[in-house]
Amino acid sequence: MSKQPHVRRRYWNEPSMGWWERAYVFEVGRGLGITGGVFLRNMWKWITGRKGALTTYYPEEKRADYAPANRGKHLLTQRPDGRPQCVACNMCATVCPAQCIEIDAAFDPDDASHPKYPARFEIDYSRCVFCGLCVEACPEDAIRMAPETPDLPGFDRDRMWVGRDELLSWNPQRDVAKPYPVARDAGPPR
Amino acid sequence: MNAPLPLTVIYVVYALGLLLTFGTILTWVERKQAAVMADRIGANRAYVRIPFTQIKLIWMGLFHGLADGIKMLLKEDFRAVPYDRVAYALGPWVTFIPVMLVFAVIPFGGSVAPGRLFPLLAGSYGDRAFPMQIASLDAGLLVVFAFSGLTIIGTMLAGWSSANKFALLGALRAGSQLISYELVMGLTIVGLILIYGTVDLDAIVRQQSGTVLGVLPAWGICYQPFAALLFLTAAIAENKRIPFDLPEAESELIAGYYTEYSAMKMGLFMFAEFIEIAIIAALFTTLFLGGYNLPWLTDAGFVLPGGHAFALPHALVVVTQMLTFLLKVLLLCSFQILVRWTLPRFRWDQLLRFAWKFMLPLALVNLGVTVAAVAWLRGLAA
User: Fold this and answer.
1) Staple partner for B280: which of A4, A119, B167, B235, CB 3.0–4.6 Å?
2) Phi first, then psi: what are they for A49, rounded to 5°?
3) pTM for the whole thing?
């Protein structure tokens, strides 16, 4: 323990107060003027029907300035005939760190080139962490992530599952990087 | 002259309704105003759904106050192991009730003549007019100070009986702060009492109905602008709000003297604080802003300078005066909230130094100047 008394270090840019600041009242008045001015300006905007805030009302109002590479809601790509490109290989469900993808594979005897298809493909958005690993794992370019996230928020965990049909149809995309031959006797999309 | 019993009952119901409404609405005003000041929107998610429909009433988040109230009522009523059970239970009430009682002597409107308002009542009341004030006391201003002094006891009781060091520290701070600023508040008012020559609030407001020099309204703030500033500052300090919220400074003392209170008992402290905003505004309006007076509006109607006069029906005058009072109170509440969301908190030594070395001398100087001026004017008149 040193015996020297503590001497506060002085800095070259230490702020100093003149008599004007020390009198306190004037600077208080200035501060009130600033906040009051902001208040009046914003209130005037509200009263005249404009928005006087920087906030976005999230679910009702959507921002247009999402980054193009933003990882938002998933979508399942379609084959030219409208059926899912997905072959139900379960790679995305396996790699998913949140384990929020559930796939039930089914057998389609009519489609010889890719007889496996997802009867059920559901994502639990209450658990999804939007990491994008499913998109990277997919060998078929069947799952993608759109930049935007429409209709995702919900009040109930049970209602936050999004199923195959919505993933296919909410933002239909057919420009698959790995096209398949059209099945000879393509039936209606399942 | 006190109003007859039925009229007094109406006054009491009106005053209670007004104060409780203010207490609830001000929580909303505070949130929204703070939000607008900070470029935000503010709480707007609470809604009431009309039963059997999907129509949700949001009303700009007005129901958040209701939600807060329900939350307070339904929360666990945590029982601390207090040092003194009686004092612990009394604390919130001793803080809350005097705040409400102050309004009893504040005139919230001019005079009302029931016989002229409703011809049906003309038989029993005739043409007599009664002041719109629950208790017309000669000692009005003294009553105000007596009651607002009582709140110190409530905070001290709460802090002391909680058997909690933070609460005790908060209570000690509250005690010294309230006593210091009450002194300043009293001294600033003395000058006003000298000018008006009375402490009866109704008489004070009546004296403010004229004009000074023919142009300015004869409001207290025109006679004593300095005292008005000091009074408002001291009153905000009395209310223990930022920048004077040392007794309940969260970052230092958890919640100060009501640390050990929960649920509605804590709600009473909060409610008392918000009602006191309205009370301070009402008191300031009464003393410095001419109460219910609009410039050039008398009980008969408008009398403009230059001799023009518009007669107004009695009912319209009564309503105008009540609305004027409410509007002034609302504006002042808004100003207090502006102060609360602008200034940072004092340090404890700064707080007391501000009271004793800055405001008290200024109040004394103001009083001295007022005394000299009043004596000189009286000498001129005599």
Assistant:
1) B235
2) 85, 10
3) 0.78
Are A27 and A97 found together in one domain?
Answer: no
A35 and A102 fall within a common domain = no
Q: Is A72 in CB contact (< 8 Å) with chain B?
A: no
> How many Å lie between the alpha carbon of B26 and the closest alpha carbon of chain A?
17
Nearest by CB: B36 against A24, A34, A42: A42
Tens of pLDDT along B117-136?
777 777 777 777 777 888 88
Kindly report the nearest CA distance between residue B13 and chain A, in angstroms.
33
Beta bridge partners of B212: B216
Domain that holds residue A128: 73-169
> Of all helices (H) and strands (E), which one includes residue B302?
strand B301-303
Question: Do A118 and A164 form a contact (C-beta atoms < 8 A)?
Answer: yes
Residues A78 and A164 placed together within one structural domain of the fold: yes
**Greatest extent of chain B over all pairs of C-alpha atoms, in Å:** 77
Same domain, A97 and A146: yes
B322, B324, B284: which is closest to B14 by C-alpha? B322
Which of B30, B37, B350 is most worth mutating to test chain A (most A CB atoms within 10 A of its CB)? Answer: B37
- The reply to whether B179 touches chain A by the CB within 8 Å rule is no
Locate A15 and state its tokens.
Answer: 């702020």
Q: What is the ipTM of this complex?
A: 0.82
Q: Please tell me whether residues A38 and A105 are part of one structural domain.
A: no
A68 within domain boundaries: no
Residues of A with Cβ-Cβ distance to B44 under 8 angstroms: 57
Do A83 and A165 lie in one domain? The reply is: yes
How far is residue A82's CA from residue A90's CA, in Å, rounded to a whole number? 21
Among B37, B41, B358, the residue with its CB nearest the CB of A38 is B37
- Please write the tens of the pLDDT for every residue from B135-190: 888 888 888 888 888 888 888 888 888 888 888 888 898 889 988 888 898 888 88
**Count of other CB atoms within 10 angstroms of residue B323:** 13
Name the token pair of B146: 């007596």
8 A C-beta contact, residue B41 and residue B35? yes
